[in-house]
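Here we describe the complex-level prediction in full. Unlike the single-chain runs in Section 2.1, the two entities below were treated as one system.
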Amino acid sequence: MTQPDTRPALEALRAQISRLEGRSGRERAVLPFGVGEIDRRLPGGGLALGALHEVAGGGADALHCAAAGQFAAGIAARATGKVLWIVTRADLFAPALQQAGLSSARVIFVEAGTDRDGLACFEEGLRHGGPGAVVADVARLTMPASRRLQLAAETSGALGIAIRRWRRQADAADFGQPTAAVTRWRVSVLPSGPLPVPGVGRGRWLLELMRARAGESAAFEVEACDERGRLALPGAADRLAVPAALGDRPGAAASGRGRASA
Amino acid sequence: MLAADLAARKLGLRAGMPVAQAQALVPGLTVMDARPEADLAALERLALWLQQRIAPIVALDRPDGLVLDTTGADHLHGGETVMLRDIVRRLAASGVHARAVAAGTLGAAHAVARTTRDMAVVVPAGGLRDRIADLPIAALRLPENIVAGLDKLGLRRIGDLDHAPRAPLALRFGPEVALRLDQALGRVDEPILPVRPVDPVSAARAFAEPIAAAETIARAIGTLVPPLCSGLEARGLGVRRLDLLLHRVDRRAEAVRIATGRPVRDAERLARLLCEKIETIDPGFGIERMVLTATLTEPIETRQHVSALVEQEDADLSGLIDILANRVGMRALYRLAPVESDVPERSVTRVPALAPDARAEWPGYWPRPIRLLPHPEPIGTMAMLPDHPPAFFVWRGVRRRVACADGPERVFGEWWQGDAELATVRDYFRVEDTSGARFWIYRAGDGEHGESGSQRWFLHGIFG
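The structure predicted for the assembly as a whole is:
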C-alpha cells in the first residue's frame, strides 16, 4: 500500500469507517521521522500522535531495551512539550537522553513499583494531555489495558510509547500477543558502519515495523538517533566526514538537517 | 529529678533521684523547676507540626509521647521505615531526641517505643504478640501501684500476664489490666482522639444513615469540597495537605490524606484526588460522619501569564503531578539534573518534578550509554596492554569478542570525597562486539600503578 489509492468508492468507504471510529472532522496529526523511506510506509506519513505505539528490543536487548529506549527517547525528543517517563527500573542514564535530544528539564520520571501502578500512571499521563509524549516501561500489556491506553491517547492527542521490557527472556514471547497499539516496532542493534580510523562508529539498528494499523510491516536498516533524536539511512551518513555520535553538538544543526532530508 | 538524658545518665544521674543526691554526684548542677503545663503545650505544638507534615491523625500520649495513625499517609513518605527514619531525623534537627515505632496497635507501639534502643522500629503485623511478650509490664500504660502489685505476684513480663488467668487478676486489680493487654494485642479497639489545629478551614457532614458504598462516599466528597474551597477563597489560601476523616459507626476513624505540589483551590481537582483514594477506605459497618480539613495551607499566588505571542508556554502539569504523586508517592516522581562530577554515577541527581529548571547540561563530548547498571558488574577479560581495551570479555556468562573500541576516557577519583579516592582512576572504553551490541566498560586503575585501582574490569552501561 505504498501508492495512495484514488478510487472514489474506496475513499468514501474509508471516510465512513473513520467517522464510525469517532475521529471524523480532524485529520490525524503525525510526527514524521524525517526519513522518507520510513515515513512513506506509515499511514499519514509519520508516527500518529494521539495513539499508542509499542517498542521492544530484539534478541538480548529485550531485557535491557537499550536500543529500544534510545529509539523512544529520540521520538520523545522530537515531540513537543514535556515528556513523562514511567520506569520500573531506574537505570536510564540522563546524559544519554540529553545526547538523544531530550534535555533533562523536559523529562519527568515516575518510578512505579508495580506493573499495575505503571499502567495506571501511563494512562493518567496520556489522558491529561499536558505532556507531549508519555513513555513507559511495560512488561505485560493485555488487550483491555492497551485499549484503555489507546483511548486515553486519542482523547488528549498525546503520543504514547510503551517500551516492552520484560524481566526474563522467556517472557518476551508475550510480544506476539495482539494489542490495541497503532504501531509495533522492534529495534535490534547491528554492527556500526566502518570508519576510516579505528573506533566505534554511529550506532546502527535494524528497525522492524512489525505491525501498523492500516499499513504494512517493513524493516529498515537505520543509523541510531543523533543529538536531535533523528534517524538517518546508512547511505546518507557516509557522506559526512565526522560520525554524528562523536562530533556533532547542537551547533551543527545545519549539516544534520541536510542528512535528515536526504 | 524528672528526666535524665544520655549525657546525664553517663554522669550517673537517674530519673526519680532526689535533687540532693544528684547535686552531690554532680557538683554545680543547675536545677530548674518542672513546668508540666509548658511541656504539654510544647508537645501539642509538636503534634500539630507532625499533623501538618506526616499524618492526619495525631494524638497526645501524655506526658512524653505522640501517637500517629499513619494508615492513610505512609504512601506519601515512601513506606513505613523511610517515614520513621525521616521523622526521627527531622525531630533531631530541631533538638528533639525521639524514638519512632510503627506497630499494629497503639498499646504495642507505646510499649516498644519505651523499651527499645533503636531509633526507628517497624513491628511486622504477624510478629506483634512475640515482639511484646518479653517486655516489662510497666510498658503497658498501667498505674504504678498495679504494676507493683503484679510484680509481687511474680508477673513481670507482658507474656506472663497474657498466660495468667484473668478472673483473679480482674478481681484484685480491676478491669484495667485485661483492657490494656487486649488493647496492646489488638483484641480491643482503641479510638485515638486527634489534636485539632486552631481555626482550620474545614467542612463536615453527618449522615442520617451510615454510608458504605464507594459511589456514595464519592458523592459525599463532592458535596464537601466546594464549601471547603469557598472557605479557602475567603482567606486567599490554597491546600497543600488535605485530610478526610471518616468516622465509622464503631467509633474508629479512617483517614485519607492527599498532598499537592503547589497550593490548590480547584474543587474539581481536589475532589478527583480524594476520590482516587476511596478504594483504600475500609468503611466497616458504615460511616456516619465525614470531616474534610485543610491541614496545611499556603497563600495562592496568582501569576500573570506570558503573552502567547512571545512563546508558547508549557502546559501546566501540576495537576497531573499531584495525581501521580498521590498514587506512587512524592519520592517516586522526579526530574534528573546534572551534578558537576566526572564519575558517572555521581553526575546525576534527582530534583522535585516541579523544581525550577537550572538550565544546566552534561558535557557532551563523549557518548554515554542509555542504560547505566545500578552497580558496575565485574567482567572476565583477557589482559592487554594498558592503553588497550580487552580483546574479549565475559559478562553474565556470555563471551563477547570486541570488534572495535573507543577510549580510554580517564575518570579521576574525587580526592575531596575522601582520601581513598586520591589516586584512583577509571579508564572507560566504549566497545562493540561482533554482533553490534555496544557496552561501556572500564578498568579500575590505569593499568600500571597498583594504587590507582584493582586493575579489574567492570561493565557499567549499555549503549543503544
